[in-house]
Amino acid sequence: MLRRLASRCARSLGARGGARPAAGLRHLGPSPRRRASDAPRNQPPSSEVVARPVGVCSMMRLPLQASPQGLDAAFVGVPLDIGTSNRPGARFGPRRIREESVMLRTTNPSTGALPFQSLSVADLGDVNVNLYNLQDSCRLIREAYQKIVAAGCIPLTLGGDHTITYPILQAMAKKHGPVGLLHVDAHTDTADKALGEKVYHGTPFRRCVDEGLLDCKRVVQIGIRGSAMTLDPYRYSWSQGFRLVLAEDCWMKSLVPLMGEVRQQMGGKPMYISFDIDGLDPAYAPGTGTPEIAGLTPSQALEIIRGCQGLNVVGCDLVEVSPPYDPSGNTALLAANLLFEMLCVLPKVTVV
User: What is the pLDDT of residues 149-165, one digit of tens each?
Assistant: First the structure.
């Protein structure tokens, strides 16, 4: 019986010989280079063949792989939350998102996207962060992502607090130069420092500007809202040339027209998607560290991500899911679906 089950899993996963369980990206090492298009493509298993509770907990029940070699795209966990300023718990986000991703399937009938027929995709496990040293964690993340992007693999990141986007963008800019940014969030994350520290989840995009990692004329921040310490909390973003779209300017309307403008602004140059789950209203996504009322809706989130179809997306992240504040699992379920939508808009994905 177990042999039959293993055979079914192998057929449904489409796992090639190099796809195997891995403890995490700390094991990334040399392996034979092979074009992703030449290799059999992994497929999430159908629940008609393999029961959803069966198997190792990976994103969409894809094979776990130690190396990005031969992959077009990969899910990567960064279980870090020592950069948080309020409620912790985002270190458990990657694991919970993977658990909820068992509901996801292989195609996107709403958009016609066929990601698993177009790309070789796997789960690369988690970056082995240092939970006692934020600066060292940033180094570990940066080095791990440099290896991923050098292999020609597009990372889709499961966070983790928003600090992680800073070292990821360091790796992105090393390969692509300054990138455009589509940033969905309740907060601009452009503070300079807090409690004397210049690196935490409120400062990643300020640090990115300082280091020239962003093409500031192609930065769009959507969903911004909440109380502030001054009446001019967005001065820094505006001074850098960022486009800010406040949450109240999104209320009760479709964001399809907005995304048409964003596509024109981004053009064909490399761009990165960073999606903080607190960009959504806490009625839909309560499991997060710094919730703000009157946010975006899940349907607007889909419009934003689907509006990136055709853009030169070189990486994505979904951050700030905090399972201790998400007893129903709905926040993690929403996060898993948004990551799938990001996969569906990557370059080279067939759309019918």
Answer: 999 999 999 999 999 99
Please name every residue paired with 243 in a beta bridge, in sequence order, or none if there are none. 220
Neighbour tally for 268: CB within 10 Å:
9
**What are 159's strand-pairing partners?**
78
Under 8 Å between Cβ of 170 and 142: yes
Radius of gyration over every alpha carbon of the chain, rounded to an integer in angstroms: 19
The DSSP code for 9 is: H
Sorted by sequence, the CB contacts under 8 Å of residue 24 that are 6+ apart come out as 125, 126, 127, 128
Task: Please choose, from the candidates 284, 295, 290, the residue with its C-alpha nearest in 3D space to the C-alpha of residue 331.
Answer: 284
Q: How far from 21 is each of 56, 67, 99, 128, 206, CA to CA, in Å? A: 8, 11, 16, 15, 37
φ, ψ of residue 144 in degrees (nearest 5): -65, -45
Tell me the backbone φ, ψ of residue 159, rounded to 5 degrees: -90, 170
SS3 content of the chain, % helix, strand, coil (to 5): 35, 20, 45
Indicate the pTM of the whole model.
Answer: 0.90
97: left (phi over 0), alpha (psi -120 to 50) or beta: alpha
φ/ψ of residue 47, rounded to 5: -70, -10
What is the rounded distance in angstroms from the CA atom of residue 94 to the CA atom of residue 59? 9
Q: List the beta bridge partners of residue 244.
A: 221
User: Which parts of 1-133 fold into alpha helices (H)?
Assistant: 2-13, 93-100, 115-118
Supply the mean pLDDT for the chain: 92
- The share of the chain scoring above pLDDT 70, in percent, equals 89
Q: Is 107 exposed, middle or buried (0-12, 13-18, 19+ CB in 10 A)?
A: middle
What is the CB neighbour count within 10 angstroms for residue 65? 27
SS3 351: strand
* pLDDT tens digit sequence for 79-88: 999 999 999 9
Tell me 230's DSSP state: S
Q: What angle do CA 192, 317, 256 make, to 5 degrees?
A: 100
